[in-house]
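DM from R.C. (forwarded with permission)

"hey, sorry to bug you on a friday — could you get me a structure for this? deadline for the figure draft is monday and I only need the backbone to look sensible"
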Amino acid sequence: MAYLPVDDKGDFELIVASGIGIAELEISGSVSGRTASVSDDAVGGRIGTGFQYRINKNVSLRVMGRYQFYDFEFNGVDVDADLFSFGGGINFSF
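My reply, with the result:
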């Protein structure tokens, strides 16, 4: 994760993040009383960006958006999973 100050005092920061994630996807269904399910694990990429405001040296408020992408395979069929999440929070630093 990288932090880039965007004001003179350094209270506002742009956040950029990247990494690797592991996910499991399970698909199940039922037709005419017959049930089937398949599952697969995949390694994929993660990227994100957001802003952070430092209230003081130990407390900051943050909002971030993250995009994750995975490629699963079920019985020879490729399934691409693209996920976007958005969140906020309070960070405490010691």
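R.C.: lifesaver. The radius of gyration is 19 Å.
me: no worries. The chain is about 0% helix and 80% strand.
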